[in-house]
Structures are given as C-alpha cells and as structure tokens.
C-alpha cells in the first residue's frame, strides 16, 4: 500500500468519524429540545403564581411570605393546588418529578458501527 492509498484511507476514516459526530450532535440537540418541551408541559399546568411558589420550594412558609410578599393562607392554597394539579402527595415529590424530567439513561456518546 503506497502513501497516497494510506492518506486516502485516513481521510475516509476522518470523514466517517465526522459524520458520526454530526449525527450525535443532532441527536443530543433533539434530546435537549425534548427535555425543554417536557419541562414546559409540566410547568404550564400551574398558574404563574403557583410557579413562583414551586420555584422557591424548600423554604419555610414564612420565608416564602417574605420573598413573595404573600399571605400564609395564599401560599398554603397555592401549594395545595400545585399538589392537586401535579397529582403528587408532597412538594418534595413534585420537585423530584420535575428533576426527573432532566435525567436520561446513560448512553454512548458516539455509536460505533
């Protein structure tokens, strides 16, 4: 095998790898788009006010009152509404469900043929 044949084979190999990388980048973009869509669907079940309460979950009622300038009964009602809409027994579980939207089973980044 002469040098030009080796060079040609090397170029073909590089082009094959580049093609695989382009396919993988496209797949990863589609995965990210899907995650964003799932997040939007999940959050669009809630009103804007409920989304505010959901976003700062983990704080006490009094801390949320200070942050959002809302009454305790309003916050409790919004939390109750969030749980009902998301069909979860607790805010912790609702947040966990939201976080699970971003998890993807581990996959090979580059498929070999």
TrEMBL record:
* Presence of the UniProt keyword Transcription regulation in the record: yes
Which biological processes are named by the entry's GO terms? regulation of DNA-templated transcription
The identity of this protein, by name, is: LuxR family transcriptional regulator
Name the Pfam families for this protein. GerE
Q: Which residues form the HTH luxR-type domain?
A: 43-98
* Stored Gene3D superfamilies: Winged helix-like DNA-binding domain superfamily/Winged helix DNA-binding domain (1.10.10.10)
- Species assigned in the record: Priestia megaterium
Arranged from A to Z, the UniProt key words for this protein are: Transcription, Transcription regulation
MF GO annotations:
DNA binding
The residues forming the signal peptide are: none
């Amino acid at each position: 095998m002469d040098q030009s044949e080796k060079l040609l084979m090397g170029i073909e190999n590089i082009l094959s790898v580049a093609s695989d990388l382009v396919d993988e980048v496209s797949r990863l973009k589609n995965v990210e788009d899907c995650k964003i869509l799932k997040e939007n669907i999940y959050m669009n079940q809630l009103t804007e006010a409920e989304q505010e309460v959901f976003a700062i979950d983990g704080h006490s009622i009094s801390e949320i009152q200070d942050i959002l300038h809302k009454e305790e009964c309003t916050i409790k009602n919004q939390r109750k509404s969030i749980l009902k809409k998301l069909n979860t027994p607790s805010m912790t579980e609702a947040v966990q469900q939201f976080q699970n939207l971003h998890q993807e089973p581990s996959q090979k980044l580059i498929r070999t043929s």
